[in-house]
Amino acid sequence: MIKVYTQSLGCPKNLVDTEHVLGSLGEFLAVDDLEDADVVFINTCAFIQSAVEESVSAIVEVATQANEHSFIIVCGCLVGRYGVCELSKEVPEVNLWLETKDIDNWGSLTAAAVQEYFGIELSAEKRQSFVYKNVSVQIPVQQRRLSTGPSYAWLKIGEGCRHNCSFCTIPSIRGAYRSIDKEILVPEAKKLTESGVKELVLVAQDVTAWGSDSADRDLRPLLDRLFALDGLERLRLMYLYPAGMTDALLGYLKEAGEKFMPYFDIPLQHAHEDILSKMGRPFAQNPEIVVERIRKYFPKAALRTTFIVGFPGETDAHFDKLFNFVDKTRFHQMGVFAYEQEEGTKAALMPGQVEKSVKEARRGELMQLQAEISEEILEEYLGERLPIIIDREHDEWPGLYVGRTWFQAPDVDGITYVSAPPDEEIRPGMIVEADITETQEYDLVALA
Question: What is the mean pLDDT of the segment spanning 362-371?
């Protein structure tokens, strides 16, 4: 059995890609030590310069620390941004570079290349033919190797992006938006729920764009099929483009029932019309429109967003409007990024680039405000009994579990610590009712 070391950097969409590629290898042993690995797989991120640097560091670490017989594979946004030609010159130790244009065949290419390199046939119950280097080879039928445990799974429903935000590199890296067909997605989701997964989290660069490039026209035909799945208890939508939050979609979600989590992750990016216009964002005149529309249908909705501070031309007055907007709107969850000048984007060439110290100061101010807002919101849940989905046991404290309530998405939000009396069984994947006994800035503490 081959031993595989994996790093999946960046967003959940990358993680889904990684899980699909790993599923193409059939049975293997996952290892944590580079020196033990037969196969090393790195899925990179390159959305911003700091992500590029992290990805390069990961590849260099692999090239210098992996054993000399390891088969090294690199894919993802770094490859899409800089190209195989340039990267292979810098790191010749990499055996296989997977290009973004071949994403549908990453799993098959990986399996075929690994078989050829080791001169073995990967173990699998089902096999399929795949042409590799003009030769037909038998490789395992691709299955998804889930890495998030029994409680939740990401379901990537689209590839690429159809928008042209002036600060963003994604369209140039991943290409135009392409919906993944529901006849692929629904069977994948069905397998996940049949395996015990309780919560599906839909992700894409723009989830609301799903179906816009097909006969489905919008997201609702896919959601109809997903809500009908046996075993599914929670459906969460992430990466919702503001312009996609229409009355038609919100009205549909209001009638969807208890499986839908009334949690809306909408990256607004700013609140001032001047900056939004320069960014190429919707609701440039009034970003409150989308907030008011959601709260019309879901008065108690949990709102999550991200903002960019220090965008070219952002003045103190622009930032003050953003600060006041956050103070007024009271998001459950919020992330703030200091603008990074990305090569190849329109914004990188704009006049009025803001000093790094100013950007960091503004980010700190906004995050401090959000910490206060979050603490106040969570205090409102003290003493309430809430359903908590259990993700895992705590790494250090026996009898303590890490979970999430309905307004906490995996990885990006706060968590709920859950304990229980010794005679009550709790295990990952369960949804338990628990009393909130303590609240913190971003986290909750509960007793089942």
Answer: 98
Structure tokens at 4: 């595989």
* Two structure tokens written together for 437: 């006994």
Across the strands, what pairs with 404? 389
Angle at 200 between CA 263 and CA 419, to 5 degrees: 75
* C-alpha–C-alpha distance, residues 110 and 112, integer Å: 6
Residue 137 has a pLDDT of 94
Q: Which pair of structure tokens corresponds to residue 401? A: 């579990």
Determine the average pLDDT of the residues in 218-228.
98
Under a CB-based contact definition with an 8 Å cutoff, are residues 264 and 225 in contact?
A: no
Distance CA(313)–CA(272), nearest Å, equals 12
Give the Cα separation of 16 and 20 in Å (integer): 6
Backbone angles phi, psi at 9, to 5 degrees: -95, 155
Distance CA 18, CA 178 (A): 19
What pLDDT is recorded for position 142?
87
| Cα gap 21→142, rounded to integer Å | 8
Tokens of 319: 């930032």
247's torsion region: left (phi>0), alpha (psi -120 to 50) or beta?
A: alpha
Q: Give the dihedral sign, CA 323/328/329/333.
A: positive
Strand ranges, E, within 135-198: 135-140, 152-156, 158-159, 178-179
DSSP letters along 31-74, please? -S-GGG-SEEEEEE--SSHHHHHHHHHHHHHHHHHS-TT-EEEE
What type of residue sits at position 166? S
DSSP strand pairing (385-393 vs 400-404) = antiparallel
